[in-house]
Design a protein that fits this description.
The structure holds 2 protein chains of 2 kinds. Chain A is α+β, with helices and mostly antiparallel strands. Chain A folds into 2 domains: about 80 residues, OB fold (Dihydrolipoamide Acetyltransferase, E2P) (Beta Barrel), CATH 2.40.50; about 90 residues, Beta Barrel (OB fold (Dihydrolipoamide Acetyltransferase, E2P)), CATH 2.40.50.320. Helix content of chain A is about 25%, strand content about 40%. Chain B is α+β, with helices and mostly antiparallel strands. The termini of chain B are far apart. Chain B has 2 domains: about 50 residues; about 80 residues, Immunoglobulin-like (Sandwich). Chain B contains 1 helix and 8 strands. The chains are: A alpha+beta, B alpha+beta.
């Protein structure tokens, strides 16, 4: 009785490699054979190449998947760059090293509501970028690099209104003094005093003592923010708070 | 000894036993009462032992954003901004592409807010009912097309 498992194991050990050998043997070709030896060699070579390509694709796909899984976003202005790295500085003054990969890192810029692929050559020092990729020790390994723009929002009280040059001076809640230029392209909205809803606004309605929230583009994170051009202003009349 | 003498002795003995029993009973009872008072007193002392109660710190969180987390990455065109602020405050959500303003009835809020491609700087401001100075928080949401 004790011999039975031994016999079964022996049979399996014998049969499995035989079955594998039979199944992996090249299938007979229907094309005429010129030289059986040459054909077998060519077939083996193409099969090996296909296998290598398949393996390479699967590894690349797996690597991309793993990199996506741990992906995070960082943003900042490029302060230095080499062939393989960017160093960026965030608006909070934090520096990050971005590791670039010649084949895996993709570069994009935004065009309205779409993105277009670009090249690393189109990205220069001082460019504000958003980077997606996993963090590895103290570096971000870039999957995607997007050219972007930095915006900031400041709020404060209007201390001066100059209709002659369409500017207002505000004392921000962060204790800064900023001169805001209001242009034709500035989206100006106001808060309805009774409902608190947003409605269309006008520069002429802004008075000293009113509160404003100003959105503006920052060209360089190191620049002193004392004079900005507003891309959007939300105006809250002082009457809203005194009702 | 005549009959009367014997009766008198018996009555004397009975009375003596009764008096002795009464004395013993009352003395034991008095002792018990004293013991009980001492126990109560000890319990009272125990209750009077100072107990340090940690002060209750009430933190009034005037503005709290529960979702989304700053730094989130999404491919959606909108994001739901949720949180809480002081009741009846004027709540303003502002970014380079949109502004939403609403006077809160309660203290919680949830608004859909449009996103632009790339980095979205969203400032959330809450003006409490009796104040013209806002409580503000800024979150950064990244919208990308995968």
């Amino acid at each position: 009785m004790k011999k039975t498992p031994f016999i079964i194991m022996s049979l399996l050990v014998f049969l499995v490699p035989t079955a594998w050998a039979v199944s992996s043997a090249p299938t007979p070709s229907t094309t005429p054979l010129i030289s059986p030896a040459a054909s077998t060699s060519a077939s083996l070579e193409s099969s090996a190449e296909a296998s290598i390509k398949n393996l390479r694709d699967r590894i690349a796909s797996k690597v991309a998947q793993l990199r996506k899984r741990d992906e995070q976003a960082v943003s900042g202005q490029i302060i230095s760059m080499t062939d393989s790295e960017f160093v960026i500085e965030s608006i909070f003054g934090k520096k990050e090293t971005i590791q670039l990969d010649e084949t895996l890192t993709k570069y994009y810029h935004f065009t309205g509501s779409a993105r277009e692929e670009t090249t690393k050559a189109n990205i220069k020092v001082d460019q504000y970028i958003v980077v997606l990729g996993p963090r590895s020790s103290d570096k971000i390994i870039a999957n995607e690099v997007f050219k972007d723009e930095l915006y900031q929002i400041k709020s404060g009280r209007v201390s001066e209104v100059n209709p002659s040059n369409s500017t207002i001076k505000i004392d921000t809640f962060d204790k800064e003094s900023i001169t805001v230029s209001v242009e034709g392209t500035t989206a100006l909205q106001t808060i309805n005093v009774s409902t608190g809803a947003v409605a269309g606004g006008s520069f002429s309605n802004i008075k000293e003592g009113d509160t404003v929230h100003v959105v503006f583009r920052v060209l360089l994170i190191t620049q002193k923010i004392d004079k900005v051009t507003a891309s959007r202003i939300l105006h809250i009349p002082v009457a809203y708070f005194s009702k | 000894m005549n009959k009367e003498s014997i009766i008198a002795i018996i009555l004397g003995l009975v009375l003596g036993i009764l008096v002795a029993g009464g004395v013993v009973y009352f003395s034991v009872r008095q002792q018990r009462i004293q013991n009980t008072e001492l126990t109560h007193s000890a319990s009272a002392d125990a209750r009077l032992t100072p107990v340090v109660i940690p002060p209750t710190v009430v933190i009034m969180r005037a503005l709290d954003i529960t979702a989304p987390q700053s730094g989130s990455v999404t491919d959606a065109r909108e994001v739901k901004i949720e949180g809480s602020a002081a009741a009846k405050s004027l709540l303003i959500l502002q970014s380079p592409v949109a502004v939403v303003s609403h006077k809160l009835d309660g203290s919680t809020f949830s608004y859909s807010f449009p996103l632009a491609l790339g980095e979205n700087t969203i400032q959330v401001s809450s003006y409490p009912e009796s104040s013209s100075v806002p409580v503000q928080k800024t979150i950064y949401i990244y919208r990308v097309i995968q």
